[in-house]
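Residues determine shape. Next comes a sample protein:
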Amino acid sequence: MQEGADLITLQHIDLQVVRRGSGPPLLLLHGGGGPQHHLPFFHQLTERFDVIAPIHPGFAGSAIPEHFDGMDDLIYLHLDLMDALDLHDAVVVGM
C-alpha cells in the first residue's frame, strides 16, 4: 500500500486514495508512470485545492481486478469514486 493513502472499497476493489489540501475538489489521475503525489506540483496544488489522487489498480502494489477488460472499467471505477465522495463539481486532471 502506498504511504499516506486511504482505502476506499468500490466494485469489490480496495482503491488507494491520497487526499490532501483544501479548496475546490480536484481529481488528479496519474498516467502510466504511476502515482505522482510525491512530486512538487502535487504539493502546490494542495495549497489551492482539495486534491483527490486515486492510485489506479495495478500500481503501488495493488492487483489488477480480474473483471477489468479495458480502459472503460477504470473510467467507471473513477466515476463510482466521484459519486462515493460526492465530487459532482470536481475539476478532473489527467497526468
In short: The domain at 6-94 is CATH 3.40.50.12270 (Rossmann fold). The chain has one domain: 6-94. The beta strands are 6-10, 13-21, 25-29, 50-55, 91-94. The CA atoms of residues 1 and 61 lie 6 Å apart.
